[in-house]
Amino acid sequence: MKKIILMADSAMDLPQEIIDEEKIEIVPFVITIGGKEYRDGVNITTSELYKLVEQHKEMPKTSAITPFEWEKVFKKHLDNGDDVLLLTIGKEISSTYQYAYLASQSFPKERIEVIDSQALSGSIALIMLKAIRFRKEGKSLAEIKQLLAEIIPKVQTQFVLPTLEYLHKGGRCSALTRFVGTVLSLKLQIKMINGVMDVSKKSVGKMTRAVDVMLADFFKLAEEDKLDLEFVFITHSLANKMAVYVKEKVLAANIPIKNLYESYASTTISTHCGPGTIGILYIEK
Asked: Residue 179: its pLDDT value, please?
């Protein structure tokens, strides 16, 4: 019997137990640091990545998955008689979507759907959880694609960075901005807007203050009954204590969230944000 294989690149931060249970295939990015290549989640973890950054005093580089790699992955499933739905990291962030779409053109159009999530990390996971439900409901490949197209613009992605160091090392902020940010203990709230990352708010002082500012938007939407309460994600990069803080705040608000997940940023995501980064990710109605 033909199946729909759900697939994502390793920029999706979905808990491993769900990946295993639902048989989601993850195609890993390549991480390069210290002259050596690693496969995200295969032979390197986030904590190991940060140790290598300290050891080599350099920023890791991520490489998009090539069309040749995607073609091999697609062929394996189509040869088994199955169809494929792939969610990729936003195309404004990485060329992965373009490469996967190019590879899909070598196969019958109705057998593969390559979808630009316009997101990253736990936000891709939110979309994948919807895809899992639609698959269980017996929706066709085309139907799932259409339903996800309606959801993707409503996905809200925001996270707080405790330091500008990784943005600076990655060439995403100047030395002066980093210096001023360090002196003022500046915390940036990054938000995805139309698939592009941008600074939405800045907070001075403790990390908890910046997180409270981020959560205020979430709580406001909840009060206005504008949240899709099926799934909400707290995603972080080795920010375990802050994750407890965020979870306690969310639970104390008595919002009737059906599934509140904690997920951990992959090495691909952590490469660009740094340790201690945390976000709350959800879908608006």
From this structure: 40
> Residue 259 — φ and ψ, nearest 5°?
-140, 110
Q: What does the alpha-carbon distance between residue 276 and residue 245 come to, in Å, rounded to a whole number?
A: 13
Contact predicate 83/41, CB 8 Å = no
CA 243 from chain centre, in angstroms, equals: 16
**First vs last Cα of the chain: how many Å apart?**
35
User: What is the per-residue pLDDT for 190?
Assistant: 85
Name the segment(s) of the chain with CATH classification 3.40.50.10170.
Answer: 4-151
Q: Which residues, 6+ apart, have CB-to-CB distance to 193 below 8 Å?
A: 200
Amino acid in the structure at residue 37 = E
Query: Which CATH number is 154-284's, of 2.140.10.10, 1.10.10.10, 3.30.1180.10, 3.40.50.12780?
Result: 3.30.1180.10
pTM of the entire structure? 0.93
Out of 3.40.50.300, 3.40.190.10, 3.40.50.1860, 3.40.50.10170, select the CATH number for domain 4-151.
3.40.50.10170
Number of C-beta neighbours around residue 198 at 10 A: 10
User: HSE of 48 in the Cβ direction (CA atoms, 13 Å)?
Assistant: 15
